[in-house]
Design a protein that fits this description.
Largest interface: A-B, 55 and 63 residues
Number of strands of chain B: 7
Largest sheet of chain A: 5 strands, mixed
Structural class of chain B: alpha+beta
Largest sheet of chain B: 5 strands, mixed
Oligomer: heterodimer
Shape of chain A: elongated
Strand order of the largest sheet of chain B: 5-2-3-6-7
Structural class of chain A: alpha+beta
Number of helices of chain B: 11
Order of helices and strands of chain B: HHHHHHEEEEHEHEHEHH
Distance between the termini of chain A: 38 Å
Order of helices and strands of chain A: HHHHEEEEHEHEHEHH
Helix content of chain B: 25-40%
Number of helices of chain A: 9
Strand content of chain A: 15-25%
């Protein structure tokens, strides 16, 4: 019916897991551990945002004063509140859980060619300087009878990027989330970003870009698969 | 056209001059906020439009400390904006390196409470030194408060018999939005018509640095740069165009990735003579 593999998927997945367990499965378990640790390190409920706002606002008032600004001037009157809300928005990924957004958008599909969603705009905050870094994320995966709604890949990027991040960790978290949700044959994630902490301060190199990648499963083991992904994304 | 047209006209009739009389060719040129609208005055730290009267009838003092409200003596309201512009240019308050050192612990503490307020663990490895790094970064992003225009420019003004337009374009600019404390970045294009005096070219970029490394509003930044050059060189005209991306619009709020904000300030012949303005705008576009 419509080419779907209804009823045959579970056998296929079990076979795959039995055969591939030693390489991909173990790798996925290790990734899972680090992802779990990261998730446990911080959590924030949306309902707590309101109650935490005054403290963040007060901190920003102090910051403005210590920078030598006049907090009573018109342009800065509501800046502590705005900055606090902005910061909460920029770290809203802590509210969100991958399972919540993915659960109903995984479909059985007899497709075993690479699926790529590229040029996903990403905005994150450097956890070292609290300064933005932004760029593009390219995600590719080799489905194993299960595909995910395409926008869900972008939502996964949003969840993990709207946090205090390090680009390497962000890349890995996205790859792990996709591999856990779909158990595909392989996942590849590449992020290319500009870090304002390097552009606006420090070495002040305006045109530098940082590229990180995570390859799992076939995308790691098979050079041709990796090559296909890279040539389709990094033109 | 009088060589001093730009300056004389401004001091004689400041308000109309600073209000655009011809439509700007750029996307945005907001007129000076009216004195009534900006009646709540401020310190002079970032001069210009903030150095308005706190109370009606008052005016900002000569060199007020940044953190106290401006003292007021009665002055006509129409001249307060231009007076404040020139005063602020000459008497920019400076924050010193020692001030920076002394503020660092409180800044770091404030950032620690921000991290906690966001639900993060300030004791995890990646965040251990973040409060201090963020504090130092923020001091760097506002280092324009430590610098004076007069120090940068005084010895780089040369007498030169040149009366054609001088343009320095594509000056990279990084600033901080004063409303959300989020970066703004873009490019500044500066042009001026010298009147026997020219400025070292890199000094134009240094003026941009001084004013942009502050908590800013793009409109004010544009005007401050233009006024500083006018005051220093008294040229026949000055044009400044800034095209920038505001992270407060891109990363949050409306989240429009590709939006750019363009502001311009045209003074002297750049404002009065459409052909001069046209030449400037064409040359910066090319």
């Amino acid at each position: 019916m419509n080419g779907h593999c209804n009823g045959k998927i579970s056998n296929t997945v079990e076979d795959y897991n039995r055969n591939e367990k030693k390489c991909f499965g173990d790798l996925a378990v290790e990734m899972k551990k680090s992802a779990v640790i990261c998730e446990q390190e911080f959590s924030r409920k949306k309902t707590e945002d309101e109650s935490r706002l005054p403290a963040i606002e007060a901190a920003y008032s102090i910051i403005l004063r210590e920078l030598g600004e006049d907090t009573d001037r018109q342009g800065l009157l509501r800046t502590p509140l705005r900055a606090a809300k902005a910061m909460q928005f920029l770290t809203k990924g802590y509210h969100e859980n991958v399972n919540d957004i993915l659960n109903d958008a995984i479909f059985d599909e007899d497709h075993d060619e690479m699926v790529i969603v590229k040029d996903i705009d990403m905005f994150s905050l450097c956890e070292h300087h609290l300064v933005p870094f932004f760029g593009k994320v390219h995600i590719g995966y080799l489905p194993n009878q299960k595909v995910v709604g395409l926008s869900k890949l972008a939502r996964i990027v949003e969840i993990f990027s709207r946090r205090l991040q390090v680009q390497e960790r962000l890349t890995k978290q996205i790859a792990t989330a996709v591999s856990e949700a779909l158990q595909p044959k392989g996942v590849a994630v590449v992020i290319e970003a500009a870090h304002m902490c390097m552009v606006m301060r420090g070495v002040q190199k305006i045109n530098t870009r940082t590229v990180t990648s995570t390859m799992l499963g076939l995308c790691r083991e098979d050079p041709k698969t990796r090559e296909e992904f890279l040539s389709l994304t990094m033109r | 056209m009088s060589p001093d047209a730009c300056v004389r006209t401004r001091s004689e009739n400041p308000s109309p001059k600073l209000t655009p009389q011809v439509p700007s060719l750029c996307a945005m040129e907001r007129a000076l906020p009216t004195q009534q609208k900006d009646a709540e005055a401020t310190g002079e730290l970032n001069g210009l439009f903030d150095a308005m009267m706190r109370k009606p009838g008052g005016r900002p003092g000569q060199a007020p400390p940044a953190q106290t409200p401006a003292e007021s003596t009665p002055q006509p309201t129409s001249s307060s904006s231009s007076c404040s512009v020139t005063e602020s240019w000459r008497e920019d308050r400076t924050r010193s390196v020692e001030d920076n050192e002394m503020s660092l612990p409180s800044l770091a503490t404030a950032y620690t409470s921000i991290l906690r307020g966001l639900g993060e663990d300030p004791l995890r490895q990646g965040l251990l030194k973040t409060p201090r790094r963020a504090a130092t970064a923020m001091q760097f992003f506002t280092k324009g408060y430590q610098e004076k225009i007069i120090d940068v420019m005084n010895d780089a003004i040369f007498d030169e018999d040149h009366d054609e337009m001088v343009i320095v374009k594509d000056i990279d600019m990084f600033s901080m939005c004063e409303h959300h404390l989020v970066p703004i970045f873009g490019r500044v294009h500066i042009g001026y018509l010298p009147d026997k005096r020219v400025l070292g070219l890199s000094k134009l970029a240094r003026i941009v640095e001084i004013y942009s490394r502050r908590l800013q509003v793009q409109e004010r930044l544009t005007k401050q740069i233009a006024v500083a050059i006018t005051e220093a060189l008294k040229p026949a005209g000055v044009g400044v165009v800034i095209e920038a991306t505001h992270m407060c619009m891109v990363m949050r709020g409306v989240q429009k990735m590709n939006s750019k904000t363009v502001t311009s300030t045209m003074l002297g012949v750049f404002r009065e003579d459409p052909k001069t303005r046209d030449e400037f705008l064409t040359l910066i576009r090319g």
